[in-house]
Input
Amino acid sequence: MALPLLRPQRVDVQIAVVSLFSGLALWALGLEAQPGRLLGGNWSLVPLCVLAGLELLRSNMPQTALVLATLALVLDQFTTGNLASILMFTDIMYAAVVYGTPAAARRIPLTTGTLTVTATIAFMAWWQEPEAVLVGVAIGVVAFGPAATGVLVRNHREATAAAKLRAEQTALLAEMDRVQAVTAERARMARELHDMVANHLSAIAIHSTAALSLDDPATSKDALAVIRENSVEGLAEMRRLIGILRDDSGDLEPAAAPTLEGLGTLVANARTNGLEIALDDARLPEGPKLPTPVELAAYRIVQESLTNVLKHASPGRVTVSLTQHPRALTVRVTSPYGDPSGPRAPGSGAGLVGMRERTELLGGTFESGPESTTDGKVWNVFATLPVDPADEGAKE
Output
């Protein structure tokens, strides 16, 4: 199988051409690097041309180029030599460390360093003259110097690539956090919008249906009064919500979070809509105030439960009870379950989803569904809200 031909890099071609013509210029001027050697004349052109050709392989085949360049440099020692040949060898040594395998990048500096020290000691022992150190210096400049420089450049490149990768990963994580934050905020806004407006719109839908279906001026007047009241309250709450989202809405004050103290007003409004409600909050202690998220969740669960009763429940008594235990607050809303006799508003199921999400965000539990009791079949909504955020899954 024929090996694929690797196209030389553009910079490799440029280095090879410049080096070759520089060496030819030095040869033409008669500038010899080491005169008086065994092979004189034009023999120095052989390693010069070989090294220039190997420069084309410095990026694609760096280790092969280094092995052949070492043999060419050894041959150059028997000729009058050329400075360009030595410089090309140093460049190939440097490229072998920078572009070679990680193992070669570790092995080449160690080998050239050992060679430099060994050659220096050997020549000093042979010549026994201080000038022998210059031989070791020359070997170090030609071999170890380029290898050490290649190590520094390679380490810098790897550090830069690692830093870039970390930056990309950090940016990716930041984007993921941003998307999750936006998604969570949208879900929170959807829950707030649903809980704030759905009750009023459901009352408007039911009473408007009653006003249209019953030919009774007094009933229609009462229904229109309820419709107007719910429309005004719903519009006010919508404006407060918009005031949180937009600074140019004219209402810059954020809406205060509902608390359990407002349950009485909530139940009174529901009774205005025609519901018969019994509120039992006697088991709420008068001690330290509950955490704001817990109060808000309990209020919204009661509010949404009453909205669902208005839309879906049969006529009858609705019971709302709140009980605080040592480490949790429980909310229970029961209502008659069956086919409603009056008009009803359509539902999407978002209310139950919102109540479950609010409970789970606090680490609590949520249950809803029909139950059979001695008084008949009822729809039961039950939520356990831990008072301490660490008490996930607190039970009654």
Summary: Strands lie at 276-283, 317-324, 328-336, 365-373, 376-386.
